Known about the structure:
The complex is a heterodimer of chains A (about 170) and B (about 375).
Chain A: H1 3-23, H2 31-51, H3 55-79, H4 82-87, H5 92-115, H6 130-138, H7 144-165
Helix pairs in contact in A: 1-2, 2-3
Chain B: H1 2-5, H2 9-46, H3 66-73, H4 77-87, H5 98-116, E1 124-125, E2 128-129, H6 138-148, H7 150-160, H8 163-186, H9 188-194, H10 199-209, H11 223-246, H12 258-261, H13 271-296, H14 316-343, H15 349-377
Antiparallel strand pairs in B: 1-2
Helix pairs in contact in B: 2-4, 2-13, 2-14, 4-13, 5-6, 5-7, 5-13, 7-8, 8-11, 8-15, 9-15, 11-13, 11-15, 13-14
Amino acid sequence: xxxxxxxxxxxxxxxxxxxxxxxxxxxxxxxxxxxxxxxxxxxxxxxxxxxxxxxxxxxxxxxxxxxxxxxxxxxxxxxxxxxxxxxxxxxxxxxxxxxxxxxxxxxxxxxxxxxxxxxxxxxxxxxxxxxxxxxxxxxxxxxxxxxxxxxxxxxxxxxxxxxxxxxxxx
Amino acid sequence: xxxxxxxxxxxxxxxxxxxxxxxxxxxxxxxxxxxxxxxxxxxxxxxxxxxxxxxxxxxxxxxxxxxxxxxxxxxxxxxxxxxxxxxxxxxxxxxxxxxxxxxxxxxxxxxxxxxxxxxxxxxxxxxxxxxxxxxxxxxxxxxxxxxxxxxxxxxxxxxxxxxxxxxxxxxxxxxxxxxxxxxxxxxxxxxxxxxxxxxxxxxxxxxxxxxxxxxxxxxxxxxxxxxxxxxxxxxxxxxxxxxxxxxxxxxxxxxxxxxxxxxxxxxxxxxxxxxxxxxxxxxxxxxxxxxxxxxxxxxxxxxxxxxxxxxxxxxxxxxxxxxxxxxxxxxxxxxxxxxxxxxxxxxxxxxxxxxxxxxxxxxxxxxxxxxxxxxxxxxx
Lengths: 170, 380
């Protein structure tokens, strides 16, 4: 087995393992521990991006998700009352809906993979350096409109949050 | 070196990489130890005291002139500090969360060392580039790793499970997130001007067109370089202030803030675990200083005596000189960090947040637009 393949299996295994430990950790029901395992999941996923030559995405994944979003998660979790969360036992509703969602998503993914043509050449369409990604996003016209719409959506969300977090409206 | 040539290229690559890692880590840890001494000496200088001048080693101390001189210099203090850290009792309070309590010092130490991996600390020595990992997304990698550094502080505050460390951890997470945004935005003008994320390429560009902080010399005068001067200076100032905040140094050391929070996030730590936070802080300062040198002050280049080009074969002294130039610039920044620490009082927390969100982030955004405008108008 070549080294990239071995690394793929390693990172895929770690992603799945840490992901499982986020939601169902047999040793601890501490939300901070779950959040830390989510950070590790994100880091392992960044490893998968590196194997796909998407270095920019890998760096941004760590920078944005592991470095910023998860720190804010931790910030909020630490300010909440954690005792109640730790005492709570596993509930039936959560198990049923959770399993249902996983099965549904798994079904969709399997269908897609079986339906797709796997015999294409494995060359990446763009080598994931920053310039190629930027050109793809901003000049070809194919992704420009969706990309800009997403950014407007983010702006709307930001304005909404600022409005909601204001104590009194003038 | 015949046995080296007999190895395959891959083995040579692995060998030289491991050699570079060992040298850089060894040098960095030594520098960190002496940075602590320098901090005490600089503080003594500023407060008109003598500073540490007591430790004397039995044999070397009795050498006529040198022994006394080294003692006066405090040369052996880092050694004694290190030994003290190791042999002190490592006390773990009963109320802490054990796993995080053990994990936090390590997490605060590792990112600082990982950042150093992509910094080009010299040109070439022999056939080897003086950088451990020549990444194409160098700057993004450093920012990603730096952003992980906050976990050490936050988890230390959480693990201690008592009020003052917890407040320190909460403060640190809010502060570091805020200033990371300003820091990230302050280097975007550098990306725009250089057009590459590789730190080696950024240094190459600065060797040809002048340092990013003041792009005047080097490429000769042009309308573009004159117009880019304010952009460079603003970028650098924002980056420098954010670096102070990211490394939790005064006037931004809200996470520690000993007059309000006892000792902040590391109140409950003792002996070598405390020592690891200490090493982490100084290693982070070195990483910040190295980043500033690379991004804004031309890295290992100097714009005269032909020191801005990589040495050709056989000029190994030039390679060593380049490493020396890089170290000189980095140590100058370290001195500035210490100088600022002992000259300025601490901000209030609301002032800190105000400065970050209402002043520096809008200023950094305006600077991006200004730089892009200048580049678009002067046709690049």
